[in-house]
Amino acid sequence: MLLGCAEVPPVGPEASLLRNPTVAFGGTSRFDAGKFAGDWRTLACIGTCDRGARYEVGGQGVLRRETGGVQRAYQISAPGILRARDGKGTLVVMWVDTGFRTAAVGDADGQFAAILDRGAGSVDRTRAATEILDFNGWDISKLRKIQ
Known about the structure:
The protein is built from two helices and eleven strands. By secondary structure, it is mostly beta strands.
């Protein structure tokens, strides 16, 4: 399922509380910035997460993410690998369903991961996203629903 994805190297011990830092994880080869753009609602998360996010495509391989009224620009360096243009972080889209309705995202530093959805979510897609988080080393026992 993750063939052709770019891996993000494991990080230091500070991430070990939410994610196993010895497990490399990568972005989905299915990633398409145009299809990913738009409004997303956070269904569940690990760590500190916003209730939702808005993504907008910029020029020259840039995807802008707005959360909590703060906008940040990311350079798409590989499918699903979004490196902050200010050099402070990497966001990884680990999985997205074929209809771009549900996604599993997290940061390379292991500070947060989230299951995003464009609507009310579905049990099957949420389960698939949870399995992807687990596969990528996240401690899914810490996954909590966001209302």
